[in-house]
Amino acid sequence: MSDYTENAANELADLALAEEKLSGDAKLVDRIGEILGASSQSLEEAYLTAVRVRRSERRARQLLAESVAARKAAAAQAEKDN
Known about the structure:
3 helices
């Protein structure tokens, strides 16, 4: 895949996810994918992959943050109990 395709897909994924969050339009990302697929399957695939990667990263970071918070809360409670 070309650098241009990767760069365009990454930029579009960032913009689409940001607009989805701001607008609350849960279908925006999918509609952009459909538009891309109508003219460039390569760009559509790269875009959808970029979206999945970013969503996966966000979920992983959220889980890690929750784990850290739970561990700190447990440590604080143990300290308080002692």
